[in-house]
Model the fold of this input.
Amino acid sequence: MVDESSGHTAEYLEDLMKQLESHRKWVQGQRGGRPADLAQADLSGLSLPKAVLRKVRLTGACLTHADLSNADMGAAILIMADLSGSDLHGADLMGADLRGACLNGANLADANLAGTDFGVGSMATADPMIRFTGTPAPARRTELRDADLSRALMRGAKLADCDLTGAELVDADLTGADLRGAILVATDLSGATLTSAELKGAVLSGARIDDTVLAQLVELGAERRAKLVSVIDRLPDLAELHRQWIETGGREGQRLELDMADLEGANLAGLDLSGASIRRSKLDGANLHGTALVMADLVYCSLIGADLSEANLSGCVMRRVNLTGASLKDAVLKSVPIVGDPDRPWPTNLQSARLVNADMRCQVAEGALLAYADLTGAQLNFALLKGSDLTGARYVRPGADVVPE
Done:
């Protein structure tokens, strides 16, 4: 059933239902059926579980937050479609064309994605019959950031150059998949099957892997540092420009902005990197003792064994970072008041972070977000337990299984 609370008009929903019913009949070989053409259609927020959409044309369509769970979408044309936040768990997308599609935050758990094409897509070249009212969107890589692909069947899937940053691929079957040049930063590959997969040029920095997956990666000759750009030699100059940017309110200097940088072992102790953007980068073993990272963006970074003791992490975004074995002893995790809206302070964000065996005995954790973080074996103190949101966080120690509330 189509949900009328989705914001679409009753007339639009009635016409859509007729098209979907006619398409179902066409797929199932019944009289009166005809294929639906829903290119650039708006299906956002609709509830369409178990819908029959095999071979449907949805080029450039908007399906954000739609419920397509257990839908039959085999061989569907979804080039440049927006499926961000959609529910596709258990859906059959075998052989579908998802080139250039956006699936950020989508739920694809248990979906059949065998032979699916997730390559770079462009509506203008792939579907020339579409008439544009303005300038068509440029070609783009398929995005699956933070998507849940747990247990998904992805045998032979074409994922070359696909952005899978932060995605969950737990127990996914990627046998024979083409992952050349794919971005797998902070991706959870635990239990995944990678037999005969192609991984040349894939970026695996901060990816979560178990011993079995590691053995597969070694056998496949995967290079976990591929595509990371070393900037250690340029750090003094970049830090100086950032200092000028802070002191002049942006009038001089330049904000530190890095993405997929190799900063392993870098010495950044005592620097003021407030407001910096260092995303998807490798900072394993880095020295950040006493560093100011107020309102900085470190999302998806790998900080294994890093020293963040006495660092000021107030308002710092560290969602899905890997801080295994890191030290945040005496660090400050305060919320930062937002100018013009003091009632909505900006908290330190460590949601879904991996904090295994980390020293989390911080100085203060005022409003810090640690929801769904993995604190297995971590050292905690009262400041952290009292001041943080630990909803769904995991804390395991010998003889205990504690989830602080």
Observations:
- Helices lie at 10-27, 123-126, 211-220, 235-247, 382-387.
- The CA atoms of residues 272 and 292 lie 5 Å apart.
- Residues 398-405 have pLDDT under 50 and may be disordered.
- DSSP finds five helices and ten strands in the chain.
